């Protein structure tokens, strides 16, 4: 009997969600494929249907996490009126999406180049989104005529420092709080 495609897709999503939850809570560098399979209540061969190696599994899980986080962030800001509120909502939502990530996960992510690059790419995309939101605010007359690319670059620089744990080391703020503070500082700086 063949597994229906909709079940396979649903099962894959459930496994990726469980995998992301495990990695966010505990990190991934110390886990073997056998341990991951046991924790997810599946076989190693099932894990191999998701990715060909542990390294690919980690990268795929990281991509899955950031896709879900991006969807969650955009959903949270979809109905927010006003550019200032949208930027604050956006950066707060980014912080909230990262809040479940344990220190162990973030350290593992930083130490594993393929996963670190996924995070860096998502940080660049988030900075581009902030740029768009600033442009919208300037066009609507909510923000003074700022150089939106510079303001977005400042945001991107801080987002990279947050990603690389520099903000935590310098200030003691976790990622979620750092994003909230960035939102307040950024929007105050460009407001009329």
Automatic annotation (TrEMBL):
Pfam families assigned: TetR_N
DNA-binding residue intervals: 32-51
Keyword field: DNA-binding, Transcription, Transcription regulation
InterPro entries per record: Homeodomain-like_sf, HTH-type_TetR-like_transc_reg, HTH_TetR, Tet_transcr_reg_TetR-rel_C_sf
Signal peptide annotation: none
Database matches in PROSITE patterns: HTH_TETR_2
Residue ranges of every copy of the HTH tetR-type domain listed in the record: 9-69
Domain of life: Bacteria
Name the UniProt record assigns to this protein: TetR/AcrR family transcriptional regulator
Classification of source organism: Bacteria, Bacillati, Actinomycetota, Actinomycetes, Mycobacteriales
């Amino acid at each position: 009997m063949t597994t229906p495609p909709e079940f396979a897709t649903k099962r894959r999503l459930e496994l990726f969600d469980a995998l992301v939850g495990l990695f966010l809570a505990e990190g991934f560098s110390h886990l073997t494929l056998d341990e991951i399979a046991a924790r997810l209540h599946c076989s190693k061969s099932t894990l191999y249907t998701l990715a060909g190696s542990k390294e690919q599994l980690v990268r795929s899980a990281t991509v899955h996490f950031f896709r879900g986080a991006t969807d969650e962030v955009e959903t949270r800001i979809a109905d927010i009126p006003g550019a200032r509120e949208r930027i604050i909502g956006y950066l707060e939502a980014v912080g909230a999406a990262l809040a479940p990530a344990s220190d162990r996960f973030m350290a593992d992510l930083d130490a594993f180049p393929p996963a670190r690059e996924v995070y860096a790419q998502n940080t660049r995309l988030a900075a581009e989104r902030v740029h768009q939101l600033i442009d919208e605010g300037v066009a609507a007359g909510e923000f003074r005529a700022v150089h939106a690319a510079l303001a977005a670059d400042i945001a991107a620089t801080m987002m990279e420092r947050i990603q690389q744990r520099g903000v935590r080391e310098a200030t003691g703020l976790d990622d979620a709080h750092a994003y909230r503070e960035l939102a307040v500082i950024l929007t105050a700086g460009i407001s009329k």
